[in-house]
Each structure stands twice: as C-alpha cells, then as structure tokens.
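agent> fetching stored inputs for the uracil docking request
agent> found them:
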Amino acid sequence: MTMRLDRLLSELGVATRSELRGIIRSGRVSVDGAAVTAPEKRVDPETQRVCLDGEELRYRQYRYFLMDKPAGVLSVTEDRKQQTVLDLLPPALRRLGLFPVGRLDKDTSGLLLLTNDGDFAHRVISPRSGVEKRYRAEVEGIPDEEDVRAFRAGIVLGDGTRCLPAQLEITGGSVCFVTVMEGKYHQVKRMLAARGKPVRALRRLSVGALTIPESLAAGEVSELGEADLCKVLREYLIGK
Ligand code: URA
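agent> prediction call returned; pasting tokens
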C-alpha cells in the first residue's frame, strides 16, 4: 500500500504536516537511498526504506503511549468545552487516531494508555484478560481489616451491582491502595463509598506491571515498546 511521503512522516510523528514540507524540500529525507524533495511522492512503507538525516524510520500501524494524566482533564478524544487528554499531545501525535484505553474520571490522575489499536484496548479493559489496575486513594475515614475482607469477598455497590473480588491494602491512615481487574463506571470510588469511605483523591499507579516512569511529567506521554506492552498483556505481540 503506497501513501504520500509527507503523510507517512506525519503518521510516524516526525513533525506536523506543514513542518514536514520544509523538512522534505530541504533534502533531509531519502527513500531507498535517494534523496526525495517532493512531499507528494508516493512510497510503500512496508517495502521501502525511508530515512531522515540518514536514520531509518520504521513505519508502525499501531502506536502505544503512556500518559501521566493530570486531574482536571477528560479522558475522551474530543469535547467542545473542556480540555481532553488528546489536547495535551504534541501536534504531530494528534493525527495518529489515538484514543484512551478505558477511562479515568476527570478528577482522577495517573497512568492512562493511549493507542490506535482497538484489539489491544479491548483486551486491556476486559475483565477476562485479568489485567490488574492499581490505584492510590485518599478517603474520608480510616479503611480497616473489615473493609479488606469485604473487598476480597466482592463489594456490592449502592445499586446492587456485585464487583469481582478486589484487593484493598490499608496503611492505618486515610490513604489506601486498591487493585481491581474490571473498570465499571466510577468503580473504585463507588466501592469505597459502599464501605462508608468516600474518595477525596484518586490516582492510578499501574496497569498490569506497567508503572509511570519517574521522569514523566504530568500531561506528558512516553511511547511504549514491545517489552512495555508485554508488561500489560503478557502474551501481547506487535506486528500481529
Ligand atoms: N475508579 C474510579 O472511581 N474512577 C476512576 O477514574 C478510575 C477507577
């Protein structure tokens, strides 16, 4: 399948489409070893070798990013009034068709995956995959051993919905850690509220064995490689 050179470089997140025209015209891009200065030149990313400043660019249909989502931002792809996680992305990444893997509430911060791979997203979200999501919660009151047992047995929410067994780690104070394998609407808040411990602040710390790199600032993204994806879904393979 061929595509325009400027579109390919834009999808690779090299720069925005308008910046790319300048980059290509200046002769910094080569295809199969020959400099190409026409942005509209058609190339086949599967079979041709495209280089920028002599470095090969590998085309990947599917991309995966980890964001440290700040509180106050919506985890949807667009909203007419409020800022979304896609608004926080650098312009070159906004055109990749990324969407959040599941939702974090507006006031929840922490690890949010973004991808354009629907199959991956589906598997991470599905309780059947058993991917654990771990949260740090600050609550009103002090969670105790009785709460731990209730989480282990499966909390029944205010509307009668029964949750899968989950893990509650207590600290002796108002901070606790919750690990769940499913993602019902406002799940962690509703589970703690069902125990009379309403949540004041919530942050997602990990998805599977994937955690937020210390070097990542709030609102920034870091691209994930195959090893990172295997931390989320052990059997996951890129290039399916
Ligand atoms: N559970 C919640 O209640 N809120 C979130 O954002 C995530 C899990």
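agent> quick read of the result: The chain has seven helices and 15 strands.
agent> awaiting further instructions
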